[in-house]
Structures are given as C-alpha cells and as structure tokens.
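Issue 218. Parser rejects a valid record. Input:
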Amino acid sequence: MHVAHGHPSREDEEAVRARMQRQDLLHDPHKRFKILIGEPTLRSLICSPSVLAVQLDRLSRLIGMDTIELGVIPMAAPLRIPPTGGFWIHDERLVTVEVWHADLRVDDRDSIATYLRTWHTLRDSAVYGAAAQNLINAAWRALSGT
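Output the parser choked on:
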C-alpha cells in the first residue's frame, strides 16, 4: 500500500474495494475455486504479524466451504517440479501470471495446457481438509508464539 502523508491513496482504496468484491465471489454458489498455496506463504512476514494473523484466519475459514478446495503444499512435501510465482487459471481459457512488474495474460492453448499440467503436478503434493487446517494452525501458533 502506498501512503502519502499518512493517508492511503485513491488507488489503494480502489484496490481494497476490488479485493473485497473478489472475496464476495468465494460465496457465490455458482462458482468453484481451487486454490493452492505453499506452506512458506503461511509463515512469510511480508506484512505485519497482525495482518498475517487475519489472513491465516481467512484461509482457515475457507476450508470446508462448498465453493472452495484449498490445498496447502507442505514444506516437507516431495515435489516433482519447483513452485514458482503465482498464477491463476480462469475456466481453462485464460491464465494470469504474476511477475514482479505486471500480471501477464496468457490465452494461447499450448501455454494454458502447460499451466494446467503444472497445476495438477503441484496439486498432487498438497494436503487438504484437516491436514491443511493443521498447517494453518501451526503457522498461527508459530506467529503468536504459543
């Protein structure tokens, strides 16, 4: 977030509104989301500990929702490929790839097929349900020092 003179910019406020609208989609019974995150993400302090605690709580609440399948790739999981930056597959018609300077949009079939193979390969290393919840809880305990 960019703060000028102690106040968030208009762009930051708009970004927050957009994120909140995207989160509303998680509750739409006509949509399905399959999410993979690496366990290191649960423990990375790229924000304040209080913000990370809120994010861990939000992730914890996703487990068990009918519209969401949340997988966590444990740090000790055997991986057939190394995870790289984030990417999102949208209905197998578009892939958005997060890189340092931009979000790239990929829409050619061969590249989408590569991302789908990557997704399935990483998915095989993830844990779900109670096992994912245990990893989130362990990250929260480590964060809170308990």
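Fixed in the parser; the record now loads. Residues 10-25 form the longest helix (16 residues).
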